[in-house]
Amino acid sequence: MKSSATPAAFPQPEIGRAMNGADTVVECLAREGVDVIFAYPGGASQELHQAFARSDKVRVILPRHEQGGVFAAEAWSRANGKVGVCMATSGPGATNLVSGIADAYMDSIPLICITGQVFSKFIGKSAFQETDFFGMTLPIVKHSYLVLNAADLPRIFKEAFILARSGRPGPVIIDIPKDVQQAKLTPVFPATVEFANKSLTEFPHASDEQLKNILDLIAKAHRPIIYTGGGIVSAEASADLRAFAEKVNVPVATTLMGVGAFPEDHPLSLRWFGMHGSAFGNWAVDQSDLLLCFGARFDDRITGDVHKFATGATIVHIDIDASEHNKNKRVQFPIASDIKYALSRLNELAAAAKFTPPDNKAWQATRPRATSCPRRPSRFSTSSPRATPSSPPASASTRCGPPSSTRSRSPAATSVHSASVPWASATPPPWAPRSPAPTSRSSTSTATAPS
User: Fold this and answer.
1) Which terminus in the chain has less CB density within 10 A, N or C?
2) Are 353 and 215 in contact (CB under 8 A)?
3) Ranges of each domain in the chain
């Protein structure tokens, strides 16, 4: 059956001029918009460096160590959203990239790592500076290539860049033997490439039924929390997240990877929580009855003992990678979706339904403001008298941490939420300001606490 589409509807491959494999690599990078590569030279990558020297399309930055080069490429990607590119020689040069590759894999950073390799005929024969870099990096890459035919270079680089930045981003390895770099060819640059497994490049989208269910859960919740991670940053969905949080009036706590995804001076911000995060953020998540996890993976630095993490909450987990669902924490509503699409569509559905957020102001009023804690003076400061152990800072119970039991509070807030919010109960949490312990020192001490 003939297609009725015109030939112009199908992008045609472009045939380049005659060149060697190394020059083809440079041309492939330039066609993918790469203008900077971090590369440390060596014998097996010498041909590639000479090709870069013959071209002015890609700038080569020389690190002082291969590990510095891979982390620089990763930082480049984090900073501008492009695919970072680094290069090293075979053997010890390639193995020095492993730490940076593993870091990019764990943090879902798009990265292309090009390595030189010994001549094809020496592979597997313990040649000088030969390592099975393809095999040793399989657990920490999104995909790996060992190029054995120079004619495959344009297709492989096209595929590698698509794989690195699509779906859940990650690092891709391209290992190129020296004879492939030297081989003469007339490259054919494909306009597009096809993948047998469509899930590698397609973005899953949540259904409207799943998203409407989230809005229903929020409407019924008393203590909802949004828990976000680095997926918000990767998807460039910060504006959508802020619009959604404000629309449904739900506080936002982030992981360390998610810092910057939501403004920390926003009234709904709980800053970042977990092992190194805010105490009030941890208490809020622990006492929530609905936890909306967007683009995060329930890392152990966040959850601690997963069996004790948010035990009273109904958990919704939206992630582009379905393999993250129920991997660390069992959830009630796993949804595989591009988070930017999900948040954007949630905002549209909420607006169409004229969604009215539940009244949880009484609960939010009991949480401490993240921006209210003053900087504590140094214990060695000479600008103010040093406080004795029996004289805690006067401002501790009123300006930092949760409200004390003596602070005035509306009857509604106390009666409705005193049983469910730890710092609103008669018994303060462990980190709440406490009365000073009795001391044998004279009660007439004149030392005063710094304000």
Assistant:
1) N
2) yes
3) 12-199, 208-365
